[in-house]
Task: inverse folding
C-alpha cells in the first residue's frame, strides 16, 4: 500500500498561537482515517491544511506522491464536505453537483449525465432542480456528499459533516458514508469531535490534543491500549474511571485509597503512586469475592443499561441488567485485573 | 513574474490588489488633501501663490487672525447652538419615535421606513422647502403656530437675528431625525425580548424597564448615534445657503459655512483652511468616541 | 386580558405622526400647484384653489433643467461607478480577514467617513487648481465626491460580505476554482443585492451633491441641479411656486425609487449601518 497523503513535521502558527506542533502522519490509499479530539485540538486546522485552505508554517505535505506545499486548493484534486455543507445557495442541486466539473471543462451533456448518476447513488434524483433552501438537513448533507464524489478525487475530506443532523439521521449517515467509501475505494480523512463516530467509521483513528497527535492506531487498539490517560479518557463511552492508587512493595499488588488490594497479572515498579483506569463496562457487581467495594451514590437507568455511580462520584459502573440495589447500598465490585490500565500520575503516560 | 500572477489568482495578492487600489484612491483624494489643508493653514495663500506649493510660511498668524476676527465668537456660539440643539432634537425625537415604532402594530416597519425619505433627499431641496415653510409673512409655520395660540405676532425666522440660527436648527432636526430613529430602532430590536419578560416577572414597571434594561443595553448604540449625530451635524452644509446664507449679519453662520465663505467668497484660502483645521479637531474627537463605541462590532 | 383595538390605535397614531413628519413634502407639492398670487394668500390655503401645473414646463425651460439634471445624472453615475468598482473589492477584503491590518484599514476608513465636505473642499480646490483638474470640473467633482461616498459604501458593503459564509468560498476553491474565480462566481452573486442597495444609496446621495459642485464648477452648462436650484434660492426669495416646482421635479425620481425599494434599503441599512 502506498501513502495517499503524507504529512511530515507540519507546523502551523496563528500569530503567537501554535496550532499544529510537528505533526507527522501517513494516510494509506483506500483507508478511512478519523481525526478526533476536543475542540481547539488542531484537527480542523490539519484537515484544512491538507485541503490547502490554510498555509502551513513549515513541514512538508504530499498527496499521491506529489509535494503540495504552497499549491492552491484547486490543483490538489481533493474534495471536501463542510460542517455547514457550504452548498451554493444561488445554484440548484444539479448546478451544485456539477460546479467542479464545469470548472474542469467537462462538457454540458457529460456533466448532466454524471450528475444524474451521482443523484441516483445518493438518492437525490427527484431533487435536482431544487435550490438548497428547499431541502431538509439530511438532503443537504447528501448534496454535499454528492458534490464531493462526482469528481472522483484523490481524497475526500470531511469536516464534522454530521454534527448538524439529529441523532437518528446521524447514525444512518454514518453507515452510508462508510458504505460509500468502501464502494468507491476512496481515501477519506474525517474530522469529528465525537469519538463514537471515529470508532465506528474509521479504520485508523488519530487522537489529537493541543496541536499534537497523542496516539494513532486501529480503533480497538486505541480502546485496548491507550498510551496515556488523555486517550484513555477520550476513547470509550461512558468515559474510563480514574482512581489514585499505590503499588505495593511486591510490585504486583495495587493498593486502593480504601486499603483494598487487587493482585495485578504483571510486575510493575514497586512502591510508586499510579493512576488506575477502569472502564465502567469492565466493572461488574461481584457474585463471588469482590475486588473492592463502593457505596452507591446515584442510579440512572436508560432501560437497556444501568449506570451506578459511587457516592464520591469517582467511579461509574455500567451493567446491562436492571439494578436491584438502592442508593446508599454498599456493593462489592469485581474487575478482571488484566483490564486495569495503569498511568503515571504526573505525566499521564501508560505504565 | 509567473509567481506574481499566480499570487494574484490564488493567494493574498488578489486581496492586496483589491484593497490597495481603493486605498490609493482614498489617500489621494482624502488623506493628502487633509495634510495639505493643515499645511495651508500655516502658509500665506493669495491669488499670486495659489498655483505653487512653496508659499511664504505664516506661522500661526492665520490662527491669530481667525480668533481675532470680529465674528469669531459669534460663529463659535452659533456652532455650539447648532450642534447641541440639532443633536438633542434629533436624538430625543428619534428615540421617542424608535420606541413608538418598536411596538407591535400593523404597518409599523413600513411607516417607519417612510420617515427615511428625509434622509435621501438632497440637503439643498430640504433647505428650500424649509425656507418657504419658515418664511416670515407667508410662511405656513407661522400660520400654524398662530392658530395653535403659541405665538401672537409673526416670527421672522430667517431675518430676525434672534431666530435665524434656530431656523436652520429646526430644518436640520427634521433632516437628521429619521436616521437617528433608524439606528436606535436597530439597537432596540437587538435587545432580547425575554429580558423584558424576566424584568416584568421581577416586578419592574414600564418606566423601570426602560431605565434598567433599555438604556443600559443600548449604551453602545447610543454612543454611536450621538457621535454620528455630532459628525453629521458638523457635516451639514447645504441648509445654510438654502435658508439664511449665514445672515443676517452672521447670526446664523457656523464654522463649516464660515470656512467655505472664507475660501470661496472672500478667496482667503489660508483662513478657510485654518477654520477647517480647527473644526477637524472637533470631528476627530467625535470619531474617536464613535470608533470606541463601535469597536466591539468592528472586531466582531 | 387582550385589547385588540390597541394595535389599530397605534396605527392611527403612527399615521398621524407620519403625516406631521411628511408635511414639508406635501407642502412642496401643494405650493408648486398654486398660482403666483395664491402662494401669498393669508392665511395660506392647505389645498390649492385652482390646481395649476403650468409652472412645471415653465420652470423646466426657463431654468434649463434638462441641462442641470443631465449633469446631476452624469456626476452621480460617475461617483457610483468609482465607488462600486473600488469600494466593493476593498469591502470584501476587509470582511474576509481579521487582523491588525484590517483593523487599521477600517479605522482609517471610519476616519475618512467623518471628514466634512466643507473641510475637504478648500484643499481639494487648491490642489485641483494646481494639477489643472479645474479644467475638467465635472470629473473633479466626481473624484472628490467619490472619495466622500466611498467610506460609507465600504462600511455597508462589508457588512453584506460578512453575511456570505466563508465556507462557500472555500468549497469553491476545493471544487477547483481560483480566488478570482470564486470571488466572481460565488461571493459576488451572493452579495449582489446588498451591493445594489448601497450603489443606489450612493447614486441618490450624489445626485443631490452640492458643496463640491458649487465650489468647483463655474460654468452653468456643467452645473448639476443642486447648484441650479441655489441660483434662484436665497433668504429673500419670493418665487416660491417656481422653486417648489423645481424641487419637485428634482426629488420626485429619488422619492419614487426610495418608496419602491424602501424595504430593501431599510433592511440593508439596518444590517450594516451600525457596524
Result:
Amino acid at each position: 500500500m502506498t501513502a495517499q497523503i503524507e504529512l511530515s513535521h507540519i507546523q502551523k502558527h496563528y500569530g503567537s498561537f501554535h496550532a499544529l506542533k510537528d505533526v507527522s502522519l501517513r494516510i494509506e490509499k483506500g483507508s478511512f482515517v478519523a481525526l478526533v479530539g476536543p475542540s481547539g485540538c488542531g484537527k480542523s486546522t490539519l484537515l484544512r491544511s491538507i485541503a490547502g485552505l490554510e498555509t502551513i508554517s513549515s513541514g512538508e505535505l504530499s498527496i499521491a506522491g506529489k509535494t503540495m506545499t504552497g499549491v492552491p486548493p484547486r490543483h490538489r484534486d481533493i474534495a471536501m464536505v463542510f460542517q455547514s455543507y457550504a452548498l451554493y445557495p444561488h445554484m440548484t442541486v444539479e448546478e451544485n453537483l456539477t460546479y467542479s466539473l464545469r470548472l474542469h471543462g467537462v462538457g454540458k451533456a457529460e456533466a448532466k449525465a454524471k450528475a444524474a448518476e451521482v443523484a441516483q447513488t445518493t438518492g437525490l434524483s427527484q431533487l435536482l432542480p431544487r435550490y438548497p433552501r428547499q431541502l431538509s438537513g439530511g438532503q443537504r448533507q447528501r448534496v454535499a456528499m454528492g458534490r464531493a464524489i462526482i469528481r472522483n478525487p484523490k481524497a475526500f475530506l470531511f469536516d464534522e459533516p454530521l454534527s448538524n443532523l439529529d441523532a437518528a439521521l446521524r447514525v444512518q449517515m454514518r453507515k452510508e458514508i462508510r458504505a460509500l467509501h468502501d464502494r468507491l475505494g476512496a481515501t477519506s480523512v474525517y474530522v469529528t469531535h465525537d469519538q463514537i463516530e471515529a470508532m465506528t467509521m474509521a479504520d485508523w483513528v488519530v487522537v489529537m490534543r493541543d496541536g499534537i497527535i497523542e496516539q494513532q492506531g486501529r480503533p480497538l487498539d486505541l480502546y485496548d491500549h491507550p498510551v496515556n490517560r488523555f486517550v484513555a479518557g477520550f476513547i470509550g463511552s461512558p468515559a474510563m474511571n480514574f482512581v489514585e492508587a499505590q503499588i505495593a512493595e511486591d510490585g504486583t499488588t495495587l493498593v486502593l485509597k480504601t486499603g483494598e488490594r487487587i493482585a495485578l497479572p504483571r510486575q510493575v515498579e514497586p512502591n510508586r503512586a499510579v493512576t488506575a483506569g477502569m472502564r465502567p463496562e469492565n466493572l461488574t457487581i461481584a457474585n463471588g469475592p469482590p475486588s473492592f467495594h463502593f457505596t452507591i451514590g446515584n442510579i440512572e437507568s436508560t432501560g437497556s443499561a444501568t449506570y451506578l455511580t459511587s457516592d464520591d462520584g469517582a467511579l461509574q459502573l455500567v451493567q446491562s441488567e436492571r439494578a436491584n440495589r438502592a442508593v446508599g447500598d454498599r456493593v462489592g465490585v469485581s474487575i478482571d485485573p488484566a483490564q486495569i490500565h495503569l498511568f503515571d500520575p504526573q505525566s499521564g503516560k501508560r505504565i | 513574474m509567473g509567481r506574481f500572477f499566480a499570487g494574484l489568482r490564488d493567494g493574498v495578492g488578489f486581496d492586496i490588489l483589491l484593497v490597495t487600489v481603493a486605498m490609493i484612491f482614498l489617500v489621494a483624494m482624502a488623506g493628502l488633501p487633509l495634510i495639505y489643508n493643515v499645511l495651508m493653514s500655516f502658509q500665506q495663500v493669495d491669488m499670486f501663490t495659489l498655483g505653487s506649493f512653496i508659499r511664504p510660511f505664516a506661522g500661526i498668524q492665520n490662527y491669530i487672525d481667525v480668533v481675532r476676527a470680529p465674528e469669531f465668537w459669534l460663529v463659535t456660539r452659533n456652532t455650539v447652538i447648532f450642534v447641541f440643539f440639532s443633536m438633542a432634537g434629533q436624538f430625543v425625537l428619534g428615540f421617542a419615535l424608535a420606541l413608538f415604532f418598536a411596538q407591535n402594530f400593523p404597518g409599523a416597519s413600513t411607516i417607519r421606513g417612510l420617515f427615511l425619505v428625509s434622509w435621501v433627499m438632497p440637503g439643498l431641496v430640504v433647505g428650500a422647502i424649509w425656507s418657504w415653510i419658515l418664511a416670515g409673512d407667508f410662511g405656513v409655520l407661522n400660520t400654524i403656530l398662530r392658530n395653535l395660540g403659541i405665538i401672537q405676532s409673526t416670527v421672522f425666522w430667517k431675518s430676525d437675528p434672534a431666530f435665524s440660527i434656530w431656523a436652520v436648527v429646526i430644518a436640520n432636526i427634521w433632516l437628521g431625525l429619521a436616521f437617528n430613529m433608524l439606528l436606535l430602532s436597530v439597537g432596540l430590536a437587538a435587545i432580547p425580548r425575554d429580558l423584558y419578560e424576566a424584568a416584568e416577572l421581577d416586578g419592574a414597571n414600564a418606566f423601570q424597564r426602560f431605565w434598567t434594561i433599555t438604556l443600559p443595553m443600548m449604551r453602545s448604540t447610543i454612543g454611536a448615534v450621538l457621535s454620528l449625530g455630532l459628525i453629521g451635524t458638523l457635516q451639514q452644509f447645504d441648509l445654510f445657503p438654502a435658508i439664511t446664507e449665514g445672515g443676517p449679519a452672521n447670526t446664523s453662520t457656523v464654522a463649516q459655512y464660515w470656512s467655505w465663505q472664507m475660501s470661496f467668497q472672500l478667496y482667503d484660502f489660508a483662513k478657510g483652511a485654518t477654520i477647517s483645521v480647527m473644526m477637524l479637531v472637533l470631528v476627530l474627537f467625535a470619531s474617536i468616541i464613535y470608533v470606541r463605541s463601535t469597536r466591539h462590532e468592528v472586531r466582531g | 386580558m387582550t385589547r385588540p383595538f390597541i394595535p389599530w390605535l397605534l396605527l392611527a397614531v403612527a399615521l398621524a405622526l407620519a403625516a406631521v413628519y411628511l408635511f414639508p413634502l406635501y407642502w412642496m407639492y401643494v405650493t408648486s400647484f398654486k398660482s403666483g398670487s395664491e402662494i401669498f394668500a393669508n392665511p395660506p390655503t392647505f389645498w390649492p384653489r385652482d390646481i395649476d401645473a403650468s409652472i412645471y414646463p415653465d420652470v423646466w425651460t426657463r431654468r434649463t433643467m434638462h441641462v442641470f439634471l443631465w449633469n446631476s445624472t452624469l456626476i452621480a453615475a460617475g461617483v457610483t461607478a468609482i465607488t462600486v468598482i473600488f469600494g466593493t473589492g476593498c469591502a470584501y477584503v476587509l470582511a474576509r480577514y481579521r487582523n491588525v491590518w484590517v483593523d487599521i484599514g477600517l479605522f482609517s476608513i471610519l476616519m475618512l467617513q467623518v471628514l466634512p465636505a466643507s473641510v475637504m473642499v478648500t484643499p481639494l480646490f487648491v490642489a485641483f487648481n494646481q494639477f489643472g483638474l479645474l479644467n475638467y470640473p465635472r470629473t473633479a467633482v466626481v473624484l472628490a465626491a467619490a472619495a466622500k461616498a466611498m467610506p460609507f459604501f465600504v462600511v455597508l458593503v462589508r457588512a453584506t460580505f460578512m453575511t456570505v459564509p466563508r465556507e462557500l468560498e472555500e468549497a469553491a476553491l476545493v471544487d477547483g476554482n481560483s480566488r478570482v474565480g470564486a470571488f466572481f462566481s460565488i461571493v459576488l452573486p451572493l452579495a449582489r443585492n446588498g451591493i445594489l442597495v448601497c450603489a443606489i444609496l450612493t447614486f441618490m446621495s450624489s445626485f443631490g451633491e452640492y458643496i463640491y459642485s458649487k465650489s468647483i464648477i463655474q460654468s452653468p452648462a456643467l452645473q448639476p441641479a443642486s447648484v441650479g436650484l441655489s441660483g434662484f434660492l436665497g433668504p429673500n426669495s419670493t418665487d416660491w411656486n417656481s422653486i417648489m416646482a423645481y424641487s419637485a421635479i428634482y426629488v420626485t425620481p429619488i422619492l419614487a425609487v426610495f418608496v419602491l425599494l424602501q424595504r430593501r434599503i431599510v433592511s440593508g441599512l439596518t444590517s450594516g449601518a451600525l457596524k
About this structure: Chain C has a mean pLDDT of 88. Residues 222 and 242 of chain C are 22 Å apart (CA to CA). Chain C touches chain B through 110 residues (CB under 8 Å).
